[in-house]
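pasting for the record
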Amino acid sequence: MKDELREKYVPPSFSACLMDEGYQYTQGNKSAKEYVTKFDEFLIRCNTLNTERHAQILSKFRAGLRGDL
């Protein structure tokens, strides 16, 4: 049922836009705690996509952190 609703109401471009947003997200001038919170929110939004392995998600997380951490 969940998959059927997703197919009917979620546009195909949604997942592409969401993934682009995740790849561009970085810590910037935010604290590590704020970055982790926002990254968790991103993962929750992407959870329905299930397109990435854990190693890819961790790599994306580490790439977004500032170099001084």
